[in-house]
Design brief:
By secondary structure, the protein is α/β, with parallel strands linked by helices. The chain is built from seven helices and nine strands, in the order αββαβαβαββαββαβα.
């Protein structure tokens, strides 16, 4: 109830009036049934604009840190993510990653939409980076299509450490990607990498971003070491 209240009566009207988001390819989102929306990740605002521009509800796998913040800001962020159906995940690997996978499979098994950022983190410089293969495994185990989604210019609205700026943003929904030909091969790491690379190629094509075949987290870690 809170989700729809915020979407249609509070956040939705304000965001649409200020930022005038445009969309292309909305018809590619299935009307019913489970599907994964695989999006590039330019800004924290991606998780705000995308749900507002869709008729169906979507849940994101959000890093657990968003649910454990302290003080007033931490409580507000936790309230926002919880009320809008976002799901906390532990990205430390091992059993935590397996639990995250199972959480996503529950969403898809219920016939709902799941949003995933294959890069695993926000782009540090606007480029598109190598995808993590968890999305491929999840798609094969759930037997659902993947809809590539390109967020356009959201980094110009909300960048790390910068105030919010009023700019028009866009969202491009690509055609569904069907990987049913790989059914039963979710344990083959070469298949998972091939699927993930195909997803990232589509994101590169519809977003127009420059592609870098390294992990965004590696770039961030390297920059942090240099800055110290």
């Amino acid at each position: 109830m809170f989700y729809w209240f915020m979407k249609y009566l509070v956040a939705g009207p304000i965001v649409k009036t200020l930022f005038r988001p445009w969309t292309r390819g909305v018809e590619n989102i299935p009307k019913t049934g489970g599907a994964i929306l695989a999006s590039n990740h330019l800004s924290f605002a991606d998780s705000v604009f995308l749900p507002l521009m869709m008729d169906r509800r979507i849940s994101f796998l959000a890093k657990s840190e968003y649910f454990t913040g302290k003080g007033l800001k931490g409580r507000l962020v936790r309230l926002f993510f919880t009320a809008t159906g976002q799901l906390p995940i532990d990205r430390s690997g091992g059993k935590a990653s397996e639990a995250s996978l199972n959480t996503g499979l529950e969403v898809l098994g219920s016939g709902d939409l799941l949003g995933i950022y294959p890069e695993g983190t926000r782009s540090p410089d606007g480029r598109l980076y190598r995808g993590r293969t968890g999305i491929a495994r999840m798609a094969l185990e759930a037997g659902v299509p993947i809809i590539p989604v390109a967020m356009i210019d959201t980094e110009k609205v909300m960048s790390v450490g910068q105030p919010i700026r009023i700019r028009r943003v866009g969202i491009v929904f690509g055609e569904p990607l069907d990987f049913s030909r790989f059914e039963g091969m979710e344990s083959d790491r070469y298949v998972l990498r091939s699927i993930t690379d195909e997803i990232m190629y589509e994101l590169h094509r519809i977003s127009g971003q420059e592609y870098s075949d390294v992990y965004a987290t590696s770039v961030k870690e390297k920059r942090a070491r240099v800055a110290r």
